[in-house]
Amino acid sequence: MGMSEAGEGASEEAKARAPEYMRDEKLSEECKMLLPHLPKTKGWVGHHLYKYEGFWHNNRHLDGLLSYQRHFSANDGDVLLVTTPKSGTTWLKAAVFSIVNRVCHPPGSKNHPLLTENPHGIVPFIELQYYGSMPDFTNMPLPRLFSSHSPVISLPKSVQESHCKIIYLCRNPRDTFVSFWHFTNKLRTQAGAEATPIEETLNMFCNGESLCGPFWDHVVGYWNASLKKPDKVMFLRYEEVRAHPDEYFKKMAEFLGCPISEEEKGEGIVEELVKLCSFDHLSNLEVNKTGTGKFGEANNAFFRRGQAGDSANYFTSEMIDKLDKVTYEKFSPYGLIM
User: Fold this and answer.
1) What is the model's pLDDT at position 23?
2) DSSP, res 51
3) Which of 3, 163, 208, 317 has its CA 20 to 30 A from that of 309?
4) How far is CA 92 from CA 107, 200, 209, in A?
5) b or e along 170-192 (b: 16 or more beta carbons within 10 Å of the residue's beta carbon)?
6) CA–CA separation, 88 vs 248, rounded Å?
7) Contacts by 2-7 with C-beta closer than 8 Å and gap 24+?
8) How many C-beta neighbours within 10 Å does residue 69 have?
9) What is the DSSP string of 61-120?
10) pLDDT tens-place string over residues 290-332
């Protein structure tokens, strides 16, 4: 073996021993310099999670968040859709896109964008847009729609100081956890890894160790923001929205400054919007059964028929008590009931 070959071999060996984030060529130098100094814990899918501003992020999400904080310039007309993972994000994206674009894209149109593109492709996760790149949003159609899992404390200054609107959708922590556990195990299986037992994952969740967790701190942050600035932040509960979709489509339209007129109501526009964005309709579209997202995730991984209270099929009484105790301790001081 020549010296050059030996050198290349040593280089490859050193690269293989390096921390996972050092092997990610898309990560910024800022992120690579920061990560060694942050608390870290085991992630649900495989990568470590790192604690930044009190919340846990994987290296990809954190890299995008840092760039988002530094470079994003919010417009007063922007709309930011925020959730914790697996709290109804896909539905919220479809619903808000269809509401604000109902004139140029009538919900009954055979050429509606939601029929051929996954909601996550239509309304991008802003942190992932900033991961490894510097996106240009200047030519986006108005109003600009973005989604985020970032906690309120981490929102860019321009978002906090502008008149942009934020819709926050939260979900019962029991059902959020079960849905997230299913989702991450599906990703683990696709990557050739074993599924993580539910008891082990629940312990991490209750300790606050989940993507963009602690879950309860995330929810409380936006709950308080909605109380302080109700014209800027709309706080919704997934269970209520699912039970009364017609009512909440109208409320969201009002909040976003494009109220549904009496004429539109008479024409059945609300019912058409609800039908277009229903789970049955979206999940049966070919693009959502066979397509893949920006990072290779199967689109069908974002669609799981989880009914309210579905967690009862997976939890023991001890697990329910454990999770409910944390929820009560975290939410009751703020008058939050889930």
Assistant:
1) 59
2) E
3) 208
4) 15, 30, 25
5) bbbbbbbbbbbbbbbbbbbeeee
6) 14
7) none
8) 18
9) HHHHHHHHHHH----TT-EEEEE-TTSSHHHHHHHHHHHHTTTTS-TT-TT-GGGTS-HH
10) 756 555 555 455 444 556 667 778 899 999 999 999 999 999 9
Q: Average model confidence (pLDDT) for the chain?
A: 89
Burial per residue of 27-58, b for 16 or more beta-carbon CB atoms within 10 angstroms, e otherwise:
bbeebeebbeeeebeebbbebbbbbbeebbbb
Q: Quick one: pLDDT at residue 20?
A: 61
Contacts of 41 (CB under 8 A, 6+ apart): 48, 49, 51, 56, 204, 209
Catalytic annotation, pick one of 149, 163, 244, 281: 149
Based on the residue annotation, tell me whether 149 is a catalytic residue of this protein: yes
Answer yes or no: is pLDDT of 287 > 60. Answer: yes
Lowest mean pLDDT among 3-7, 223-227, 232-236, 250-254: 3-7
Section 24-42 average pLDDT:
93
Contact 49, 211 (CB under 8 A): yes
Angle between helices 245-255 and 89-100 (to 10 degrees): 60
Structural domains of the chain, with CATH: 28-334 (3.40.50.300)
Cα–Cα separations (whole angstroms), residue 285 to 86, 88, 300 = 20, 18, 10
Our measurement of the distance from residue 126's CA atom to the centroid of its chain's CA atoms, rounded to an integer in Å, reads 10
pLDDT in tens, 184-237: 998 888 888 898 999 999 999 999 999 999 999 999 999 999 999 999 999 999
Percent above pLDDT 70 for the chain: 87
Question: What is the identity of the amino acid at 163?
Answer: H
Residue of 30, 253, 70, 246 whose CA lies nearest to 154: 70
With H, G, I as helix, E, B as strand and everything else as coil, classify residue 13.
helix
**Could you tell me the CA-to-CA distances from 261 to 99, 264, 265 in Å, in that order?**
12, 5, 6
Question: Which of 10, 29, 32 has the alpha carbon at shortest distance from 20?
Answer: 32
Q: Which two tokens stand for residue 90?
A: 């896909």
pTM of the model: 0.88
